[in-house]
Write a structure and sequence with these properties.
Strand content: under 5%
Strand order of the largest sheet: 1-2-3
Helix content: over 70%
Shape: globular
Largest sheet: 3 strands, mixed
Number of strands: 3
Number of helices: 11
Structural class: mainly alpha
Order of helices and strands: HHEEHHHHHEHHHH
Distance between the termini: 80 Å
Radius of gyration: 21 Å
């Protein structure tokens, strides 16, 4: 029988192949679709598609060659299976995913009267850039404090998305409200997971390291360590703490990315005050 680690990696690889196939079908659908009357919306869907490609293929690569950053653990002994390569791919993929959500929120502000959504749309990518810098700090220094801040920023962005979408409820067309609920629940569940599971996990790891007086690496020393040290392991005990978040990240996260390409444009009604003012202007 296969060991648990081998079964898990095989499952990740199978999901990655499925995700790529679904993305290719999505690309075919987008490029075969008739050009809508709103050319801006068509351009936005194409941009969402290519940003999704960055996330889908980045996650597929990381599924085939899993990496556990701080201990420098890998499962595959190959030049492309390293913390440096894996973290670089993750950075590009995660920025693409963040840009997808920012674009979706920005589109909801096209009426010009949703300051919260407009502010959130402008802040998501810079916040995730900061999160990526914190992640790189943790990878190089081996301190989990950077990962704690990174995951907190991701949770904050998800909570912002959920709040902004929830604020659109009164103006969303009734037939699109189930979709809006789905988005709000997904973003809210992600934020809850980050603050209830991931952030405490990394915080506890950092506290344990502090209690043990673990020495951290300087950034230059960490860069040399990342370039020169790889530990190949397929032991379940080495990987079991990473299984849950990686499995969700490389499956549900990817489905959310592809789903943003398929999502219809929200039909938003004008505020009541503005709707009442229009006839007076016309008169």
């Amino acid at each position: 029988m296969l060991e648990p680690t081998a079964l898990w990696r095989s499952a990740l690889g199978a999901v990655a192949v499925l995700n790529i196939a679904v993305w290719c079908w999505t690309a075919w659908r987008v490029h075969r679709a008739d050009l809508p009357a709103d050319a801006a919306w068509h351009g936005l869907r194409r941009l969402q598609l290519w940003l999704s490609a960055g996330y889908v293929f980045g996650c597929a690569f990381r599924s085939w060659v899993p990496v556990y950053d701080i201990p420098r653990l890998v499962m595959v002994e190959a030049p492309w299976s390293s913390v440096l390569v894996g973290r670089s791919v993750a950075t590009v993929a995660e920025l693409c995913f963040a840009a997808q959500w920012a674009l979706m929120l920005k589109d909801t502000t096209r009426g010009g009267d949703r300051p919260l959504a407009r502010l959130a749309a402008l802040q998501i990518v810079p916040l995730i850039v900061l999160a990526e810098l914190c992640s790189w700090y943790s990878v190089l220094s081996t301190s989990n404090l950077g990962h704690t801040i990174e995951e907190s920023l991701w949770g904050l962005c998800a909570a912002l998305v959920a709040l902004c979408l929830l604020a659109l409820w009164p103006r969303t067309a009734p037939h699109q409200r189930p979709l809006l609920v789905l988005w709000v629940v997904a973003a809210g569940a992600y934020a809850l997971y980050m603050f209830a599971v991931d952030v405490p996990m990394y915080w506890q790891r950092w506290l344990a390291d502090e209690a043990a007086a673990r020495p951290y690496l300087g950034l230059a020393e960490g860069a040399a360590d990342v370039l020169g040290r790889v530990v190949v392991s397929t032991r379940w005990d080495d990987w079991k703490t990473e299984v849950v978040w990686m499995s969700l990240y490389f499956s549900v996260g990817v489905w959310a990315s592809i789903g943003l390409v398929h999502a219809p444009r929200l039909q938003l009604r004008a505020p009541v005050g503005r709707a009442q003012a229009s006839p007076k202007i016309a008169a």
